[in-house]
Amino acid sequence: MSSATRLAIHPLRHPEGSKVDFGALVTGIDIEKLTDADFDLVRTALFTHQVLVIKNQSHLSPRAQFALNHRLDPSAAPSYGHGSQKGRGTDRSILHPDLKTIPHQPQVQVIGNGFVAAYEGLENITLRHPHHRTFHATTIPAERDLTHTRFYRWHIDAALYGATLAPPVVTTLLAVQVPKGRRQICQYEDDGAGDGDELDVPLGTTAFVSGETMYGLLSEADKAFARTTRVEYAPHPYVWMSAAKSRADGLGLVSEGKEVPLDDLPPWEDAELQILPMCWKNPVTGNLALQIHPSAVRRLHLADGAVVDDLAEVRAIVHRLQRPGIAPPFVYPHDWEEGDLVIFHNRGVLHSVVGAFAEDEVRLFRQCNIAGSTFPVGPEGTAAA
Ligand SMILES: [Fe+2]
Predict the structure, then answer these.
(1) CA-to-CA distance for 373 and 169, rounded, in angstroms?
(2) How far is ligand 1, taken at its centre, from the CA of residue 95, in Å?
(3) Which residues neighbour ligand 1 (ion) by CB within 5 Å?
(4) Given this model, what pLDDT does residue 136 score?
(5) Measured by CB atoms within 10 angstroms of the end CB, which terminus of the chain is less buried, N or C?
(6) pLDDT < 70: residue spans in the chain
(7) Which domains does the chain have, with CATH numbers?
(8) Distance in Å, CA 87 to ligand 1 centroid
(9) Separation of 315 CA from ligand 1 center, angstroms?
(10) What is the model's pLDDT at position 3?
């Protein structure tokens, strides 16, 4: 508890059996009227706890939401984390249909499910939550469709292409409208007969895992590999992957040769490719997080200069490193309530959308992130190539 304010940070209490060691509830704070002293506490708490939950922020304006993001990376240009979608030939991006931009605050996007007549200058919009039938290589049988769900895509919010579009430091998510009541079983593997990992989740949860935990679970040999390997992402990765399907556990894609050939992508150049460290250093604690976007990765650059460019092999290596960190005890599935503002350290966690909604279940969220002012720093203090 700060002596100057009523702000308090409460580490989240996770259910029995959980091994989640991140997340905190921040109380006594109004993000719309954030003082400098409170901001400093929030910033430190964010990099310490990775995910912050602030209740009762329904009144938060898009402007104040953006201002919070920008204050957490004040040198960043005020542009959305994926850059402008216009004029770059990226209409084929898998992200394109899921985002509606708020006209008066273009760094803030509306996402969700169902029809919304009017919201913040947007009119008659239909929001589309992904569905496992279109996202994954295999489907959940129809008889389990309402009761079971999957992780869609474990990811970092990042363009991963473009010399000026560094991964955003933070993402903020505001729950404006949330359908409540149901829970679902999130099923990891193809076989739903009960012999794979499962996790009980609230409908439409956002699931988080810690990149620091993911790193900590590695063997010493794998830690050394992760500390010295760099990850090359595909050019226009969200177009490149647009026809490929997710693994059942949402942790990367299956390799069926469905990626858009590099020659068929929108124009791209080597200088715009992103080759990032596999581990990113926390700017406050110095801890390392294993931070790989498993669906966008295309090649691995090893310490000895060798390049692994067989896509199936690259994906197998990345999946082997990441999978222990998404096991059920390490997942925090946030149970959204209207007015929740969640601020997460996008360079220290991975997250995934979960759940299948009925058409009449309206879900409306506001998301903001801005491209980072600098690229993530790896273990040796070297910036990305
Ligand atoms: Fe995201």
Answers:
(1) 9
(2) 10
(3) 157
(4) 84
(5) N
(6) 1-5, 84-91, 95-97, 191-195, 381-385
(7) 8-369 (3.60.130.10)
(8) 23
(9) 20
(10) 46
